[in-house]
Amino acid sequence: MKIELPPWLDGPRRLLEQAFAGPRPPHALLLRAAEGLGAERLGTWIAARVLCQAGEARPCGRCRACVAVERDTHPDLISLSPLEDSKQIRIDEIRDLIADFGLKSHQGGYKVAIIHPAETLNMSAANALLKTLEEPPQNTLLVLVTHRRARLPATIVSRCQQLAIAAPTPAAARAWLERELPRSDSATALRFARGAPLRAAELMALGFADLDREMTDAMTELARAALDVPAVADRWTRSGKADLPMRLLWLETWVTETIISGMTGGKSARPGAETGLPAAVETLKIRAQYGVLDRLRQMKITSLTSLNLTMAIESLLLDLGTALASASAAQRKQGGRK
């Protein structure tokens, strides 16, 4: 089965074809892209391109090597990501990779390693990788995928050939989504996915449209001081690991859009704009909003392991409700002066 790449990866793919067809193919690549743009998929395509056994038109998608790459069972392909109980790629995993690179390949060709996301390399692991980046063994290729290049050490970045992957235009992203998932609210999903079509498709497949409506109603009630915050926090906590990250993403986007709207003085496309959410949302104090936003982002990191998660969500919603009430009071006061 041939590895399919979405249309916005055609340009990067052509650049890679030229690079591998040249006299000095790269030994270390750094793919830079926002989450949901398919950099990981492009990394898999690169591995198939290098390991393919066909004479031309590589990757062919039919040979044993291509099939094994697609299934992540190729003996000369190492895929390295943080283990389930860790948020980091540790030095022992890099040492194992280096040791494997020092052995002969099983199929007499290249050895390939894909590290994703590369920014999860801890400092010891990154330092251990430097020697291999500087003096790579013959017929080896390192593919690093990063969503946050600023978190990578400059020493790692400088030793890789970089390839930036841009997001498609909104129109192109919507067109692709509507082909892949017809009769879905692609515009809403794309907004919450920050314009990344693959991430938007994941959200839509997880039932994000229903969650969007539920969250919009909850924020409308919160703004009117009519939300049963303890009950909602308890329900969100017990809703499951797949559900809660989407709720936190929704809230992060919602608060971010109100900040942008407040700073620009323009209308926000925020959720709730068409459901009677008080106009005072547009005048929320920027400092209060940033405080909520910082807590949301921290919760996204710790939410699935925190023992006091219900209390943390309840506190967050209460603070957001207080900020909404304060903004409403300020608006009423300002209206009374007129």
Overall pLDDT score: 84
Can you tell me the CATH topology of the largest domain?
Rossmann fold
Relative strand content? 5-15%
Question: What is the CATH class designation of the largest domain?
Answer: Alpha Beta
- Radius of gyration, Cα only, in angstroms? 24 Å
- Identify the CATH architecture of the largest domain: 3-Layer(aba) Sandwich
| Strand line-up in the sheet with most strands | 2-3-4-1-5
| Fraction in helix | 40-55%
Order of helices and strands: HEHHEHEHEHEHHHHHHHH
**Total DSSP E strands:** 5
- Work out the helix count: 14
Stretches where pLDDT falls below 50 for ≥5 residues?
Answer: 268-283
Distance N terminus to C terminus? 69 Å
Shape: elongated
Structural class: alpha/beta
Overview in brief:
This protein is of the alpha/beta class and 338 residues long. The chain contains 14 helices and five strands.
Kindly describe this structure:
The chain has 338 residues and is of the alpha/beta class. It has two domains: 7-164, P-loop containing nucleotide triphosphate hydrolases (Rossmann fold, 3-Layer(aba) Sandwich), CATH 3.40.50.300; 206-337, Zinc Finger, Delta Prime, domain 3, CATH 1.20.272. It has helices at residues 10-21, 39-51, 64-70, 91-101, 123-134, 154-157, 170-180, 186-192, 197-205, 208-223, 229-237, 243-264, 286-302, 309-337, and strands at residues 28-32, 77-80, 111-115, 140-146, 161-164. The chain has a five-stranded parallel β-sheet with strand order 2-3-4-1-5, with helices on both faces. α4 links the parallel β2 and β3 (111-115). α8 (186-192) packs across α9 (197-205). The longest helix has 29 residues, at 309-337. The radius of gyration is 24 Å and the shape is elongated. 32% of the residues are buried. Residues 268-283 have low confidence and may be disordered.
